Amino acid sequence: MSIVDVKQIVENKKVKLKREILDLRDKGIVPKLAVILANDSDASRVYVGRKRKLCHELGIEETEYLFDEKVTTDNILKVITKLNNDPEVDGILVQLPLFKHLDESRIIDSIVPEKDVDGFSAINVGRLYQGKDEIVPCTPKGVLTILKELEPELKGKNAVVVGRSQIVGKPMAALLLNENMTVTICHSATTNLPEHTRTADVLVVATGIPHLIKENMVKEGAIVIDVGMTRVKEKLVGDVDTENVEKVAKYVTPVPGGVGLTTVYSLAENVVEIAKNRKK
Ligand code: NDP
């Protein structure tokens, strides 16, 4: 029935976050993000560019460490050790994917949990599953921000998450469980996907399969969050057949201009939350 105005949600949130950053700066704390980019993907450069732009707009300092394909895992570990020990660096972000020869989990897990701004390290993943969601991965965190704007009472409702990746599906399900929702996780081996998706009051879809979710797979009045983003003939397409799903759902998020915006915003929020802990 209604396409969610995610841009407006983010603009409203930014006002409050900017104020918090000014307060920190008044106390002599300049929130700072360090970004490590070690791949040659154009998409990663675009994502890093968006993060840089938002940091600059909000007053977060951002430094980038760029590596070419000659870089070794040890080279990156050395930089991370330096950043871990730098009291002026709040968040360390390793832009994924990395060059194939690099040891991704060793690199991610070398970031001290307190600065792991993406929440991907084993310790922060474990904390999320323990219900101590201190640093939450940005995409699921952004989805929760949207949901809280749309539905004040998530507790007790049915959530279905389609997709179980480490960066979206699994942390998303954990986060919704922490909100006391009843959560079902679907994936490529799920039999009869529509039977599950039709039980969802909140349906979060993150598969990368364009228009996987059709009108007949959605419960009347559901909130549908489309995380998917696939380039099809120069256009970004989501996992939801929005034009038709819109007829039955209460809310659907658009692609582009949806979850992508809250993902970048949540990164800034995570940096600021970490910077606030610097005071203590
Ligand atoms: P992955 O490829 O890592 O995971 C896809 C998931 O979808 C897997 O768990 C897979 O199941 C599941 N899946 C595949 N086919 C089906 C099917 N037919 N029915 C049910 N489940 C299925 O992708 P990501 O989680 O990294 O990303 C998903 C999408 O979200 C992509 O389009 C990506 O571009 C987008 N994305 C958007 C972001 C944003 O900020 N807007 C951020 C991150 C991602 P199985 O595990 O069994 O293989």
Write the layout of secondary structure elements.
Layout: E1 2-3, H1 6-26, E2 32-37, H2 42-58, E3 61-66, H3 73-84, E4 91-95, H4 104-109, H5 122-129, H6 138-150, E5 158-162, H7 169-178, E6 182-186, H8 193-197, E7 202-205, E8 223-226, E9 230-232, E10 235-237, H9 242-245, E11 251-252, H10 259-278
Parallel strand pairs: 1-11, 2-3, 2-4, 5-6, 5-7, 7-8, 8-11
Antiparallel strand pairs: 9-10
3D architecture notes:
The chain is of the alpha/beta class and 280 residues long. Helix content is 41%, strand content 16%. The chain has helices spanning 6-26, 42-58, 73-84, 104-109, 122-129, 138-150, 169-178, 193-197, 242-245, 259-278, and strands at 2-3, 32-37, 61-66, 91-95, 158-162, 182-186, 202-205, 223-226, 230-232, 235-237, 251-252. A hairpin with a 2-residue loop joins β9 (230-232) and β10 (235-237). α1 runs parallel beside α10 and α2 packs across α10. Bound molecules: NADPH dihydro-nicotinamide-adenine-dinucleotide phosphate.
Side by side, the strands of the main sheet go: 1-11-8-7-5-6
The radius of gyration is 19 Å
Helix content: 40-55%
At the fourth level of CATH, the homologous superfamily of the largest domain is NAD(P)-binding Rossmann-like Domain
Could you describe the largest sheet, including whether it forms a barrel? 6 strands, parallel
Please write the string of helix (H) and strand (E) elements.
EHEHEHEHHHEHEHEEEEHEH
Tally of individual domains: 2
- Bound ligands: NADPH dihydro-nicotinamide-adenine-dinucleotide phosphate
Number of strands: 11
The CATH class of the largest domain turns out to be Alpha Beta
Q: What is the overall shape?
A: globular
Summed over residues and divided by their number, the pLDDT gives a mean of 96
- Which strand-content bin applies to the residues? 15-25%
- As residue ranges, the low-confidence spans are none
Helix/strand/pairing category: alpha/beta
Our count of helices gives: 10
- What is the correct CATH architecture of the largest domain? 3-Layer(aba) Sandwich
CATH topology of the largest domain: Rossmann fold
End-to-end CA span: 46 Å
